[in-house]
């Protein structure tokens, strides 16, 4: 009945009515058709709105997208990903509204270094409680508990997900229950059949694996992109004044010190065989409520957090600060003015003061304008499962090469994060994990989600967590997630002479 009312009698646009690919989020656009200003590091990708989709029928008709029903999000999400997207909202909500699980923690008087592990977290009986200051000795703070009813730790084949177990977990908040109800509705509507995750693919053209590929000759006229590539505001001349004020006044949501927390959680996870993380000073930048699709900008900001923190090439030109969305737009427009990927302006019609989606080409143009050395790379293969395998191989090798201690099971490196794009979304890769069951995961900061307060309350302290895999779930992207796509793009910073600065 709830679904019937939302679908048939909703006030305005129902979040449960699927929209076509016209409002598709910023799908990966082929760099092959866009010059990068230097004649190298171009990606080879199949152009068109169906880029990166694995299913043949979906590639022909275009993927189905639906608006996330969660207030404050409202992102357009691929229907096949909606269940996972809502599951991450459950994890996100756990720290905001859960007042049933608490833990005793001993605060560290000084900033925790990357390898410190000590504070014991314990659960209290279900019930209301008052919160003491998280900075005081012996302070109480929310514990990291499973958010699924009747769950216990038991790794599955993919990423250490929780399986059914004893009913000893706290009850879900109203917000979590509402999100789970939405998940159930979308599961009924969009549970994929065996064919929807078929390994059949469209022909990808010449070249396989990780390749800089081919590109259109310089001087070839560029085609103006539309809704499928730039989003629902593809022809917008200027975003609304309220949104400009919102972005200028609030900037971005920043969470510092999260990577050292993840380091401790990975060290305590029974699933983790070994793991690498990027530089601990990288900041998780998340979207503001009601801001829309600025994920590409948020990932550039996360890359910039490393550049400014360590004084990497280009930090002076950034003013040693993370640039705002409007500053990023100015940098990209200036890059086009200077002949760096100039066809980007023709393809987009310009992006200044608009909500048009940006992706790897724009990030590459901005970094080259600022003399930030970087390399773009594409991963694709006709054989099912090979694209994601090549991506995971590349990321693992990247972090392994930057590891200072080859014997350490879990460690932070001195490396910058990696800009990561697939059809429909982009994230920032902050690490790599190999699990004891053989599964491999990218560790990511997703700009679409904020860190749970369970995580942010643990920054700058040592702790012991009873359910580390529950806390890590929001940061893992394994084969189950990656297999939905047939190609990927990454943008990484190139090391200066002498390598990256040590921690």
Description:
Residues 27-50, 95-173, 192-225 are annotated as: Disordered. Keywords: Hydrolase. This protein is an alpha+beta fold and 503 residues long. The chain has a single domain (2-210, 241-493), classed as Alpha-Beta Complex (Cathepsin B, Chain A). The protein is built from 15 helices and 17 strands. Strands 7, 9, 11, 12, 13, 14, 15, 16 and 17 form a nine-stranded mixed beta sheet that branches. The protein has a two-stranded antiparallel ribbon with strand order 1-2. A hairpin with an 8-residue loop joins strand 1 (65-67) and strand 2. Helix 3 runs antiparallel to helix 4 and helix 9 (325-337) crosses helix 11. The longest helix has 17 residues, at 174-190. It is globular and about 50 Å long. Residues 13-51, 53-62, 97-170 and 191-220 have low confidence and may be disordered.
